[in-house]
Amino acid sequence: MRTTRRDFLQMAALAVAGATPGARAHAVDSIAGKSAIQRPRPLKFSGDMRDGLKPRRVTNAMWDYSWLTQHYRGGAFADFNKAADELLARGFNTVRIDAFPLVIGALKSEDETITIAGNPLANWGMSDRDREHVVARELVEFMRAMNRRGLSVILSSWGKDCKEYPDRKQTLAKDRDGFRKSWERTLDILGSHDALGHVIYVDLDQEFPFFSPFKDELNELAKKQSTARSVEAAMEEVGQFEQGLTRMAWKPAQMDYVRKLFSEMLPHFQSRYPRQRFTYSLTSFFKEVRSMGLQLFDVLELHLWIHSPRFDNRTGFNKLTKDRGEHDYKDYAGRIAAALDTVGPMLVKEMDTKCAFAQAWSEEIAAPVVTTEAWGPWWHMDHPDLDWSWLRDWCEQCMTLAAHHKFWGVTPWNYSHPYWKNWSDVAWYRKVNQRFLRS
């Protein structure tokens, strides 16, 4: 086939960006794929970086993998257009989902059918039985439905697998190139279907490291003995901490591992997809990651919860059986009431401090802060013993705190799904979302 000078230059540019000459889908999102020179929009210089972002504020519903696992006749997400309309009716402008990149990275074709195992008692994403899905096609369908309604999307990964390709996390545990290629294929498919433009950022690894293929490798480093140190070095280290209480949860080898992983992955994707934002969401290890001083996160996504020793010790939350089965939660409900009545003001101040920490870190690295899962206990259910009224009040106040601390994006809570009874409370959702959008 005859190659023109223009073709040669385009292929060379793609190669420099880390793509193969045949990666035409990648060209959709790259500078090399544009025939005309693109010029940036005029920047707004302001002390508040959110002033130049679109949307100006983010109100998010976290739909995790439920959008796919319940995408069947009779399921909560049977009709993506209807689901999008329900988001808008409640004042949401964004939805965060699992894009299933690890599964899509293994597909033989975009039209391949996979089987996701049923799990009727699951907290999120329950499915009555094993169900077949054409995951790549359904992802494109979902993205187009959101785009038609003017809704933004945050893509993430919970490391899910399927019956045809089991143990995807284990398969990729020591294959960073395979992890990169899985995300690349997912983004390239969306780009080739013009379904990438309304993605406001990509969270490469949900709540790192808890759902990550690299979790076990990181944990192994904790078991290894630290290298021998001189007495002088040990004495110097002691002086860096206050009575040992502020020591890092990760050992130096783990800190180095995470720093190198983030410093490898984020620049790779930022170079390959310059019109996309990338980050890692975190629900723990805030202090450890902040201490690395990385100015690589395009967005700082932190999940902030009511949990602290004061709350967990009183409620016994950690010992609860957490699923949709038949359980007695009367004692737990009474303990929540006791905790709120006894140390409620302390819990409010703790959350205010967490939001202030997030704001300070955000300004330190010049990345807007977002929370897409937050506020109350990370687990709550529709159950006769469990009350939602206190949780509504708590989350409403927390959203006000987030606005005070200049968050770019929030969520009312991580239960904003059509299959929870609270979804019928349209007025409450509109109230809290509209208040934040006006902040």
Task: Provide keyphrases for this structure.
439 residues; TIM Barrel; six-stranded parallel beta sheet; two-stranded antiparallel ribbon; globular
Structure description:
- With 439 residues, the protein is α/β, with parallel strands linked by helices.
- It has one domain: TIM Barrel.
- Helix content is 42%, strand content 8%.
- It is built from 16 helices and 10 strands.
- Helix 9 (215-223) runs antiparallel to helix 11 and helix 13 runs antiparallel to helix 14 (330-365).
- The longest helix has 36 residues, at 330-365.
- The protein is globular, with a radius of gyration of 23 Å.
- The model is unreliable at 5-28 and 234-245 (pLDDT under 50).
Offer a concise description of the structure.
The chain has 439 residues and is of the alpha/beta class.
- Work out the oligomeric state of the chains in this entry: single chain
Q: Can you summarize the main beta sheet?
A: 6 strands, parallel
Shape summary: globular
The gyration radius over C-alpha positions equals: 23 Å
Please bin the fraction of helical residues: 40-55%
